[in-house]
Amino acid sequence: MAETSLSKSRTARGAPRAFGARLTRYLRRSETARGYLLMSPTLLIMTIGIVVPFIILLVISMWTRQGFSFDTTLTLANYARAWNEPIYGALLARSFWISGVATVATVALCYPMAYYVAFHVHRNKMMWLILMTLPFWTSYLLRVFAWKVILGYEGVINSGLSAVGLIDAPLAFLLYSPSAVIITLAHAWAAFAILPLYVSLEKIDKSLLEAATDLGDGPVARFLRITLPLSMPGIIAASFLIFIPTTGDYITPALLGGPDGAMIGNLIQVQFGAVNNWPMGATLSIVLMLWIAALALAFLLVTCKVQERIA
Amino acid sequence: MTTSDAFISIRSVSKFFGGFRAIDDVSLDIGQGEFFSLLGASGCGKTTLLRMLAGFESTSSGEIFIDGQPMSEVPPHRRPVNMVFQSYAIFPHLNVQDNIAYGLRKQKLPVARRLEMVEEMLDLIKLSGYGSRKANELSGGQRQRIALARALILRPKVLLLDEPLGALDKQLREQMQLELRALQRQVGITFVFVTHDQEEALTLSDRIAVMSGGRVLQVDTPAGLYEMPKTREVASFIGNMNFFRGTVRRNGSAMAAVETEGLGTIPIPVEQITKPDGAPVQVALRPEKFALSATRPDGTLAVEGRLRTAAYLGERSHFYVSIEGKAEPVAVSTPNISRGLDRADSQSGQALWLSWSPDAIVILDTD
Amino acid sequence: MSAGTYIRRPNRALQVYAVIFLIVLYVPVLFIPLFSFNDAVHVRFPLKGFTLQWYTELWSRQALWNSLWNSVRVGLVVSVLSTVLGVMAARSITRYRMRGKGPLVGFIMMPLVIPGIIFGVALLVLLSRMGVPLSLYTVGLGHLIICMPFAVATLLPRFEGFDPAMEEASADLGENGWWTFWRVTFPMVMPGIVASLLLTFTISFDEFIMAFFLTGTDPTLPMYIWGQLRFPKEFPSVLAMASLILFISFVLVFIAQWVGRMGLDTEDLGVPDT
């Protein structure tokens, strides 16, 4: 085989060329091989950036701190601590609670907006989409900071209210509280709700709505029986896109949360910073990830069940 | 046609997609300057075969020769063939002129010469003055012509056309058929044309290969295919056909006949039939080969029947007539030479005579 | 479809809601430039008076410009790298009949469903175990990982909407793979590439949490802002700087939308033609 191809090609340069020819021929035949070859740099980077760090994170989570160094015997002691000491559970629960409320609020507030643009804006839809997403192209840090300016003791709301004489002392609950974190998160992540919701609503064939009306549904029944179920993929996507990153958020609780608004992200950061207990930080990261995966699965199952019920 | 003067020679070519046999041991010879059509329903393998000629699909086995050269190791961009794609694939980021000149890059021509060639092509496709139009400013028919010009400017040995008229409406399609045929005569390049439209294939082609299930059923001229189909599949794919079960009756070597359900015994020239006495055959007759009359015509084969339904189609009328000894009614199609209003209004159940000429009979192999 | 159909008739309540929504969306963001011109150290009403002092002071803050330059450098490298890798990934996903395509796409999209802080600490642990010193390179690596899903998600629809017959036509007209890419594929997916470059640059430029864990001695701009936030005396300077960035982002976004729009038909936007 190599012999014949060499004699045929006339410009034989020995074995490497035959190998090259065979490789070329193999790649011409196998689409999978060509696809993976083209994708290999991307996969390599992603493996270095995701798989390897996570394996090491998993290993370190089973180490323990010994003064300034680590005891490398594998143990589940950190996981036991994370399970037994109430502070960890409480912070996790609060993170999920705050993110959950922020997610629900964001999706609920953005749905009518996305609906409006999808169904009631006829010209310049693009302009509306730009208008709705422009604020989110500014720094996340600055948007959170802007809320601190608004909600702070000497911020816009308090100084405004005291200037008109409605309050004597600044409203303390505005800043450094879970509600401040929720308000800020809902505002900061609105774009991640609007875009998927808009896309799923825009996709709905308008003649389906006309058919529902024709078959006797009023606006409310039509919305509940047609629009809402068909926009469910957008609602699910939006919920995931907001809930998952916000549970691990660090900036918002650190700037606006105060002691009662701190979340799991702050605790993880402290383990890698001031407390210098990396194994515990790794453990908490993995626990957080497992919880997110579990909650995401539960959420998917519930929405599937609910959808079946409606249909 | 013998292999020696075949310009394109497809030798026992097969193609598998996983376990699916898309092309099943196809051998075809296409002559230089021929307008050759691959005709078949969707999924019959005609497009796959065309893409194998272009080099976009590899052959699983067998070999394709173009102008005597084996093609299996030649990548698409080095083959002496060009293609008109079903979607036309007009590059949307280039204007008409740059689309047509796309393949000229390697020839390193002076700009003036290149422009001149593009102008010639625009002239040929009757789109002079459209050179600077954007691709999205063109109609379907214009795109089709530009796809044609873009391929022809490279003077290919073979032009491959993948259902190039499929996206056009009926009127434009008929006009383009005429233009395509004239163009092919003018440039004299071998055309291999894929279509599922039998009428289009009959109108355009010198020869047609009818394909089904990855196999070539029959290769013949349009008239040959229509008048003398070899199998029931080909007969029913091209035009309409009435089928009758029959049995061969031989009387020595001088005379033969087929005893046919519903039509009685029909004499057949002995050389048309190779089967022995008593062998079962299929007898086929096109609807337009029948004549209808109220009374028994003289001097021709005829059978009495009853009219089931009649349909008036303008240039012709269709009738379905039941005859004794055959379950399905016989389809009859007659041209409306005179204003035969009375015929179309014929009563269902009315008695009629069907007559036909024995040389209109086609004897098919039984499946 | 006309604007006047039954389903699409105007809804007053929704219109009012949309306007309020936009106001709430914009007010917090617009406070930043507002107070950056306020002649007072403290951010509070009533406004004291107009000044450009905070802007003029900005020019002498060398550390700020260093951090800005750091962020721009990281952003440029990350956006180019992630877009190039994204093009390769999107092309292999759409062009080839590959086995295991689904899980692969899921793998690339993983950073979307894992909080950034976990990526930050995981990379920090890896790099410190390997003894790699933290620097702008490590920040870039982190940013590259989180930008990949965005690059791929931006490029995939472009490549999916790409008629494979276009590339075949080019090969048929005599161009090999390399020339076909430059003459047909690249110009046709160009809007997607520009969008991906801008999106990934913006993400990297704004990114905080990865940089928080992976920055060495050279801070990125968000890290510098983070440091400044702790010293209220420099609030107005931060605001002035923020306003400038805001302005630049707005310009960038408009360019992105404009470029994206050039390459899109109304069909792509889902806008029904009448």
TrEMBL record, chain A:
GO terms for biological process: transmembrane transport. Residues 92-301 form the ABC transmembrane type-1 domain. It is a multi-pass membrane protein. It is found in: Cell membrane. Keywords: Cell membrane, Membrane, Transmembrane, Transmembrane helix, Transport. SUPFAM superfamilies: MetI-like. Its main location: membrane. Belongs to the binding-protein-dependent transport system permease family. CysTW subfamily. This is Spermidine/putrescine transport system permease protein. It comes from Roseovarius azorensis. The lineage of its organism: Bacteria, Pseudomonadati, Pseudomonadota, Alphaproteobacteria, Rhodobacterales.
Automatic annotation (TrEMBL), chain B:
It catalyses: ATP + H2O + polyamine-[polyamine-binding protein]Side 1 = ADP + phosphate + polyamineSide 2 + [polyamine-binding protein]Side 1. GO terms for biological process: putrescine transport. GO terms for molecular function: ABC-type polyamine transporter activity; ATP binding; ATP hydrolysis activity. Keywords: ATP-binding, Cell inner membrane, Cell membrane, Membrane, Nucleotide-binding, Translocase, Transport. Part of the ABC transporter complex PotABCD involved in spermidine/putrescine import. Responsible for energy coupling to the transport system. The complex is composed of two ATP-binding proteins (PotA), two transmembrane proteins (PotB and PotC) and a solute-binding protein (PotD). This is Spermidine/putrescine import ATP-binding protein PotA. It comes from Roseovarius azorensis.
TrEMBL record, chain C:
It holds the Pfam family BPD_transp_1. Coiled coil: none annotated. SUPFAM superfamilies: MetI-like. It is a multi-pass membrane protein. GO terms for cellular component: plasma membrane. Keywords: Cell membrane, Membrane, Transmembrane, Transmembrane helix, Transport. It is found in: Cell membrane. Its main location: membrane. Residues 68-256 form the ABC transmembrane type-1 domain. It comes from the Bacteria. This is Spermidine/putrescine transport system permease protein. It comes from Roseovarius azorensis. The lineage of its organism: Bacteria, Pseudomonadati, Pseudomonadota, Alphaproteobacteria, Rhodobacterales.
